[in-house]
Write a structure and sequence with these properties.
The protein is an alpha/beta fold. It has 2 domains: 6-288, 3-Layer(aba) Sandwich (Rossmann fold); 338-483, Isoleucyl-tRNA Synthetase, Domain 1, CATH 1.10.730.10. The chain has helices at 22-40, 56-65, 69-86, 100-115, 168-177, 185-196, 225-230, 232-235, 245-250, 263-276, 308-315, 317-327, 338-367, 380-387, 389-398, 402-423, 425-431, 433-454, 459-468, 479-483; strands at 6-15, 44-52, 93-96, 119-129, 134-136, 153-162, 182-183, 202-203, 205-206, 214-215, 218-223, 255-259, 285-288, 291-293, 334-336. Strand 10 and strand 11 form a beta hairpin. The two termini are 46 Å apart. Bound molecules: ligand ME8. Ligand ME8 binds at residues 12-15, 23-24, 26-27, 52, 229-230, 232, 258-259, 261-262, 290-291, 298.
Length: 515
């Protein structure tokens, strides 16, 4: 495999101060869909997620729980790891910033920055927000709070500083030369104007608490939690051993997916740290939008904090994944409501896709002896559209436009449903069996193609559907779309619904796929 056919994608590493919720699930599911897509498209993929475990915020949560920070971090990190199983996340690694491999990388990068004259010891006097784990200048405060609304406290202490002010011009030149390095475009403009407004040197150590990685050579300081955290993207591929094949294959990362709240850390500080250490910056950072719940910001105190396991228990894993990626343009903000989830589940999944598969497979079972029918030239327009899907999907996925990718797939689902109605194979069963077979072949072949391209989004349902079409596991990649059409005469298993309708338990417990 050539070096070009590789893809390194990451999620943020989540703070272990609190349990996982819908927002964390969102970024992780999106990264998973992209990782699966690229694997199916023949790329060698490294997909990384994990937890961010140091800093004052985590130390404070551990203190209120009455246990040590390490014990607390172990407990909550496990919940994030469980979230990956819960949502069928296909991450290749899960990094924790309390692991020795990470500490080694942080120490090495620190020393490298020091060696290159990028770090000096100074005095910080300013505002710090523990919730944001961020420093703020006096001029940035709004009504005595951080611009994010978080409480701030006055901090005056000896700190190490990174010479960020040196890097403004080089960052601007990098973004000028690499317009794709930040998405969406509107966010790129924000970052560029922030850099143009002038960068101050950045405090990169803290004193006064110990829950962190000690600064090499001066253990009175711990490394600032954001410098510590960002380095996870390097530690997971073996930094500081830059000669190892993992590192040389996967760095620079192809995509850091983040929420818009942490874009500045990823698109200003991170590339500056990297360039200062002589490493190339990531190829692209994409900042997605923010979910509210039933119109409100998600928070424990409002009681609308949605744990992913509850959603999965009620609606199913695939439905949650589908909803998150289909409902909002990736990049925009949006609102989560149960009504919207049920509408997508019963509409797009059960009525449109599930019912299409069920109708066609049941007809094949009844009229073709449960075997793949003979092709005969019917349904060419439908098949042509199904064939055109992959190039369109590649375009959309390159721009992280998951909703457009799903819209394109469902457009073909809609056409296939209209084709069933128009071609009426059940009537042909009595008048023209050869044509009936040909119509059903075109439909089954379209469903095969749909099932293959929908795998990154709803992996479980796609797997079941491909099983019902007797598509061998080795024939499920995108290369198989053209290489392995359905073979007439192949015996098919008994069809069963793939997307049961959601019915409120209080009303009835009936489930089925009928329109
Ligand atoms: O920021 N809507 O961790 P974090 C959409 N440890 N996405 C949301 C969301 C919401 N309401 N709430 C959270 C940190 N997210 C650092 C990251 S990376 C080197 C260090 C998602 O636990 C979104 O991806 O606060 C956001 O950026 C991330 O969770 C913040 O997670």
């Amino acid at each position: 495999m050539t070096a070009e056919r590789r893809f390194y994608i990451t999620t943020p590493i989540y703070y272990v101060n609190d349990m996982p919720h819908l927002g964390h699930a969102y970024t992780t599911v999106a990264a998973d869909a992209l990782a699966r897509f690229m694997r199916l498209d023949g790329y060698r993929v490294k997909f990384l997620t994990g937890t961010d475990e140091h800093g004052q915020k985590v130390a404070a949560s551990a203190r209120s729980a009455g246990i040590s920070p390490q014990e607390f971090a172990d407990r909550v990190s496990l919940s994030f790891r469980e979230m990956t199983g819960l949502l069928a996340i296909s991450n290749d690694d899960f990094i924790r910033t309390t692991e020795p491999r990470h500490r080694r990388a942080v120490e090495a990068l620190w020393r490298e920055l020091e060696r290159r004259g990028e770090i000096y010891l100074g005095r910080f006097a300013g505002w710090y927000s523990v919730r944001d784990e961020a420093f703020y200048g006096e001029d940035e405060l709004q009504d005595g709070k951080a611009p994010t609304g978080a409480e701030v406290e006055w901090v005056e202490e000896e700190n190490y500083f990174f010479r960020l002010s040196r890097w403004g011009e080089r960052l601007l030149a990098y973004y000028e030369a690499n317009p794709e390095a930040i998405g969406p475009k509107s966010r790129k403009n924000e970052v560029v104007s922030f850099i143009k407004s002038g960068l101050n040197d950045l405090s990169i150590s803290r004193t006064g608490f110990s829950w962190g990685i000690p600064v090499p050579g001066n253990p009175r300081h711990v490394v600032y939690v954001w410098l510590d955290a960002l380095i996870n993207y390097l530690s997971a591929i073996g930094y500081p051993d830059v000669e190892n094949p993992e590192f040389s294959t996967y760095w620079p990362a192809d995509l850091h997916l983040v929420g818009k709240d942490i874009l500045r850390f990823h698109a200003v500080y991170w590339p500056a740290f990297l360039m200062a250490a002589g490493l190339p910056p990531p190829r692209r950072v994409f900042a997605h939008g923010w979910w509210t719940v039933e119109g409100e910001k998600m928070s424990k105190s409002l009681g609308n904090f949605i744990p992913p396991e509850r959603l999965v228990a009620i609606y199913g894993r695939d439905a949650v994944r589908y909803f998150l990626l289909r409902e909002l343009p990736f990049g925009s903000d949006g609102d989560f409501s149960r009504r919207a989830v049920v509408a997508r589940l019963n509409g797009d999944l059960a009525n449109d896709f599930g019912n299409l598969a069920q109708r066609v497979l049941v007809m094949i079972g009844r009229n073709c002896g449960g075997r793949v029918p003979e092709p005969g030239g019917e349904g060419e327009a439908l098949l042509a559209n199904a064939r055109g899907l992959l190039p369109a999907l590649r375009e959309h996925m390159r721009e992280e436009a998951f909703h457009l990718a799903l819209e394109a797939i469902w457009r073909v689902v809609g056409e296939a449903n209209r084709y069933v109605d128009a071609a009426a194979p059940w009537a042909l069963a009595r008048t023209d069996r050869r044509r009936m077979e040909s119509v059903l072949y075109a439909l089954a072949e379209t469903i095969r193609r749909l099932a293959i391209v929908v795998q990154p989004f709803v992996p479980e349902a796609a797997e079941r559907l491909l099983g019902q079409l007797a598509v061998a596991p080795a024939a499920r990649s995108f290369a198989a779309l053209e290489e392995s059409p359905l073979i007439p005469g192949t015996a098919l298993p008994e069809p069963e619904g793939i997307f049961p309708r959601f019915v409120e338990k209080t009303l009835s417990c009936e489930a089925g796929g009928a329109r």
